């Protein structure tokens, strides 16, 4: 059996002594959605979370972690992050800012320690799935442990 290569996100969790599981899956370049990932790894979409990268007018880059089936409310994120306005970054900015590509963006292990906001609904789940920082790899983790590892703020980010 081949050994799974550790990502920066997994190394951070190891260093903190946090339990997690890695699930690998076949990547479909035509469908990088969280809904597709959920089906592929056999988890309900309510437990599969996606990481969005935004820019606040006052604080700069912010990462937001929300349920894969939801759409972020940028006004709620702006309020939670002490910004007047927050907007999604352009896709071409994702790799230079974070070191991650679309479909493989993790709230852990980015190029810089950006503020991370996790939707409060994540805490309703025993375990959630987030990107391990590479397409085709997910980390299954307790949402409370993710909050700790990412030094995240929990807030309502969807309506």
Characterise this structure:
The chain has 159 residues and is α/β, with parallel strands linked by helices. It has one domain (20-155): YbaK/aminoacyl-tRNA synthetase-associated domain (YbaK protein). Helices cover 25% and strands 25% of the residues. It has helices at 8-16, 34-41, 74-80, 91-98, 143-150; strands at 21-24, 49-56, 60-67, 86-88, 116-119, 128-131, 137-141, 153-155. Strands 4-2-3-5-8 form a 5-stranded mixed sheet. β6 (128-131) and β7 form a beta hairpin. The chain is globular and about 40 Å long. It starts with 7 loop residues before the first helix and ends with a strand. The model has no long low-confidence stretch (mean pLDDT 95).
Which structural traits does this protein have?
159 residues, alpha/beta, YbaK protein, five-stranded mixed β-sheet, three-stranded antiparallel β-sheet, 8 strands
